[in-house]
Design a protein that fits this description.
The structure holds two protein chains of two kinds. Chain A is of the alpha/beta class. Chain A has helices at 3-11, 34-43, 48-62, 103-111, 118-123, 145-150, 158-164, 166-172, 183-191, 431-438, 444-455, 457-460, 465-479; strands spanning 25-27, 86-88, 129-135, 138-142, 154-157, 196-200, 209-215, 226-231, 236-244, 251-254, 257-262, 267-274, 286-297, 302-309, 314-317, 320-323, 329-338, 343-352, 358-367, 372-381, 389-398, 404-413, 419-428. The longest helix of chain B is centred in the middle third of the chain and has 15 residues, at 95-109. Classes of the chains: A alpha/beta, B alpha/beta. The A-B interface holds A 2-3, 427, 430-433, 435-444, 446, 450-451, 453-458 and B 48-52, 71-73, 75-77, 81-82, 84, 86-88, 90-93, 97-98, 101-102, 105-106, 109, 141-142, 158, 162.
Chain lengths: 484, 249
């Protein structure tokens, strides 16, 4: 077997989160029109202003063109074949506490390694992590709410926040990603179902990691979650996001919006391990992941995005930071691994508006099999951004010889005091590297995993401890397979 | 230990080894010399099992086992070590991490307990000292940004830790200054023992001043055309290869 055939064999591996939960769901029929939006809003018992906000977004969306600029090749999505709302039936009378949640749902998260039992987590050696679990269109439960409340932290589903903290939602929803920002953000604004809401009060350091775990289960259902995180002055929060979906032959749509607001002196760390079903070797099935993630930093604030992306058939995602305040800092650390026929077009935007703003971008793209991996990044320095600094490092690694890697860096500077650095490399897991490892006793599977992990080291260092372990394991699973 | 009979091997369909016979017993040091293109590096790569180096005919046995049936990692676990002519870099994977993984695999295959963290640290530090490498190299990526000499010393360091039964050194002397050459030779000599064999592939006689071989073989056109003692190397140094190979050197 040639080395490339060997590597390819390594990459034909299973997807461990691919099971389907057998649960009765209440799903809206496919199709999108104003009536559907009114129904979603009504089901969620929303106030009038939010319905109007959704309808305004929908009207904007209708006038928008389907985006085709990304380096992605897939059939146009038929938005009338998607169902825009699905909730497990047992969630209709919202359970008051986790004890009342359908055990089948709890088992799903257990199977995925996401414990929703607080006692178990507290008994464990790990630091407790508060979890909001979103299943299809609804949040099924949020853990550790009491402990968080004591610290003044609000962590709940966004549907709940609409009722319990309408003033915060009204003020900040759409403040970072406006309704008409882009095609998918507009769609999300019209039909978003659930997601997480976080508010950290002034000067509070959130006592534990917060995390949301997204799961798409129902067939032909899109997931349109909306996450809003507000860190008030001088506060700190670290937030983790994980995602999986069953293996299905059809493509499923996921169009999320995440908005982060870092008020003066606040610090938000947002980490994602995205493991949506990527489709099979032939490119059948998998999630279409069109996500808008953006944060705004006020004076002396900092936002750091870290993402490890191994899933989805199509990824279209550019977590960005608007450095609006002086001395604010934006960071983006990314590992994107594509295999089979996965296509990823991902990167970041750093918009420097304030003085002495700094941004760092470290992107590691790994492509294998017949996949395509694109880094697309924008660094923009506004005229008022005196002494802005950016450092970008963009590395691509190719495994085998049938994959592709592309880099599209855009740099726009309107201030002569700016310093912008860009470094890019492309490398290949070479036969020589593989042979060196083998001749030291390592099998090819371990060797590839070690080489890829080494390549991603700088990004993994940025992840919270337990997440880093998970990310490494995920890469290993994504790269493993039967060795002949 | 190593028993090669009438070995024919190709690289990318090209015949390189054409009926090579070589027997190496435990405790012996063999030097393989010969002009460029004679097949020296092919021989070590065939023994270590590199992809694309195909055995077409003949026997390649190690301790009674047919090596052609083993993958490169199985050969390593059986106790064969190849010190590379051009060691590659593996960025981001620390030398220490690499050594730990390698030692674990090789020792497990040989029924030995893995080193505990303290022993491993002590052993690796000692090995660094032996080849005159700063301990800081343990934390750096495998060969990442190392100079040519540092890469070669790093190979010898790995060899010292893995304690192979059969060490193959592929032009380990090339590109080394005299000081580095002595360091490398000292490392190799420290491994000499009655139950271990060493095969040195070299173009120049100068390495053999420091690692004195029991046998010197001249390889030409894919075969061993002359075998002698250490004095043969000196003769080659003086006269070149032409008088043996029948070609102008």
């Amino acid at each position: 077997m040639s080395p490339n055939a060997e590597i390819n064999k390594l990459l034909e591996s299973g997807y461990e989160a691919g099971f389907v939960t057998d649960i009765e769901s209440d799903t809206l029929p496919p199709g999108l029109n104003e009536e559907v939006i009114r129904t979603i809003s009504k089901r969620k018992n929303e106030p009038e202003w939010l319905l109007e906000w959704r309808l305004a977004a929908y009207r904007r969306w209708l006038e928008m063109d389907y985006p085709e600029w990304a380096h992605l090749d897939y059939p146009e999505v038929d938005f009338n074949k998607v169902s825009y709302f699905s909730a497990p039936k047992s969630m209709k009378d919202r359970p008051k506490s986790l004890d009342e949640v359908d055990p089948e749902l709890l088992r799903t998260y257990e199977k995925l390694g996401i414990p929703l039992h607080e006692q178990e987590m507290l008994a464990g050696v790990q630091n407790p992590v508060a979890v909001d679990a979103v299943f299809d269109s609804v949040s099924v439960g949020t853990t550790f709410r009491k402990q968080l409340e004591e610290a003044g932290v609000i962590f709940c589903s966004i549907s709940e926040a609409v009722h319990s903290h309408p003033e915060l939602v009204k003020k900040y929803l759409g403040s970072v990603v406006p309704q008409g920002d882009n095609f998918y953000a507009a769609l999300n604004s019209a039909v978003f179902s659930d997601g997480s809401f976080v508010y950290i009060p002034k000067g509070v350091r959130c006592p534990m990691e917060l995390s949301t775990y997204f799961r798409i289960n129902e067939q032909n259902t899109g997931q349109f979650e909306r996450t809003l995180i507000i860190a008030d002055e001088g506060s700190h929060v670290s937030y983790l996001e994980g995602c999986t979906a069953p293996m299905r032959d059809e493509n499923q749509l996921h169009a999320a919006v995440v908005e982060l607001v870092a008020l003066p002196g606040a610090n938000i760390k947002y980490s994602t391990v995205q493991n949506w079903y990527p489709g099979d070797e032939e490119g059948r099935g998998g999630i279409y992941n069109f996500v808008t993630k953006r944060g705004v930093c006020f004076d002396n604030a900092k936002i750091s995005w870290t993402q490890v992306e191994t899933g989805s058939a199509i990824t279209w995602k550019y977590p960005s930071v608007i450095l609006r305040g002086d001395n604010s800092i934006g960071e983006f650390y990314s590992v994107a691994l594509t295999r089979h026929k996965q296509q990823a077009d991902t990167g970041t935007k750093m918009i420097h508006l304030g003085k002495n703003t700094k941004s760092t971008i470290v992107s590691k793209g790994i492509s294998a099999s017949k996949s395509s991996n694109v880094y697309r990044g924008l660094v923009r320095i506004g005229p008022g951004a005196e002494n802005a600094r950016n450092f970008t490092q963009c590395d691509s690694m190719l495994i085998g010889d049938t994959c592709a890697a592309h880099t599209f860096p855009y740099i726009e500077s309107r201030n002569p005091t700016a310093v912008i650095e860009h470094e890019a490399t492309t490398s290949k897991v070479s036969e020589d590297q593989l042979f060196l490892c083998q001749s030291r006793g390592l099998d090819p599977e371990k060797a590839v995993s070690m080489i890829v992990n080494g390549f991603c080291k700088e990004v993994f260092q940025e992840l919270p401890m337990e997440f880093a372990v998970e990310a490494r394991a995920l890469l290993e699973i994504s790269l493993e397979g039967a060795v002949g | 230990m190593l028993d090669i009979q009438n070995l024919h091997a190709t690289v990318e369909e090209k015949d390189i080894l054409k009926g090579l016979t070589l027997k190496v017993n435990p405790g012996e040091v063999h030097a393989i010399m010969g002009p460029n293109g004679s097949g020296k590096s092919t021989l070590t790569n065939v023994i270590a099992g590199r992809e694309g180096y195909e055995v077409k005919e003949g026997q390649l046995n190690f301790e009674g086992q047919d090596l052609t049936e083993l993958s490169p990692e199985e050969r390593a676990r059986a106790g064969i070590f190849l010190a590379f002519q051009y060691p590659v870099e593996i960025p981001g994977v620390s030398n220490m991490e690499f050594l730990r993984a390698s030692l674990e695999e090789v020792r497990a295959a040989q029924g030995k307990e893995p080193y505990d963290a303290v022993t491993l640290l002590r052993k690796t530090r000692e090995a660094c000292q032996q080849v005159d490498l700063d301990q800081a190299f343990l934390k750096r990526g495998v060969n990442e940004g190392f100079s040519g000499g540092e890469k070669k010393r790093n190979e010898i360091m790995q060899m010292l830790l893995l304690e192979p039964k059969l060490a193959l050194l592929d032009e380990t002397d090339s590109g080394l200054d005299i000081d580095a050459l002595q360091v490398v030779a000292k490392g190799v000599n420290s491994l000499r023992s009655p139950d271990r064999a060493i095969v040195l592939v070299t173009h120049y006689q100068r390495l053999l001043d420091f690692i004195v071989p029991d046998f010197v073989h001249v390889l030409s056109n894919g075969r061993i055309v002359k075998t002698g003692g250490k004095e043969l190397a000196l003769e080659l140094e003086e006269k070149g290869y032409g008088w043996i190979t029948g070609e102008e050197a």
